[in-house]
Design a protein that fits this description.
Length: 170
Amino acid sequence: MTTNKNYPKSFSHIGITVPNIKEAVKFYSEIMGWYIIMEPSKVKKEKETAIGQMCIDVFGNDWTEFEIAHLATSDGIGIELFSFPNGIKEAPEFNPFNTGLFHFCVQDPNIEELIDKILSYGGKQRMPIREYYPNNKPFKMCYVEDPFGIVFEIYTHSYELTYSSGAYSK
């Protein structure tokens, strides 16, 4: 018998750069309901602290300070928000065909209400709400955009249920 030493790694967090940290914290906490773990704070470039040195390692030397905030989803996934004072303040053009992070996805059984809330904060609905398996499973999805131009997807059901056969029966 062979033992598979590989195992599925859990998802810890995602980092998102936003143009205004306070507006982003407000949007993601009020609309998405994510818990604020750490209010916005400044990180300065310096080598005397672990966080300062780690940020120099990650970002290099072409920065002096930035703002950061930490939020968490209901299932404990971290959302790390960054705002750099000299960064470009608009999201790059949406191009899923290029290599890189394409989108993230959240789950909410009331997709219509969540989309309405996103729109009320200046976000966009990028497509009509669609059903993955019409007349078979009641699973819906939709791509949206936050007020800062960051594209994400909404599912009504879990990823596993959405893609597994026999996961839902009438």
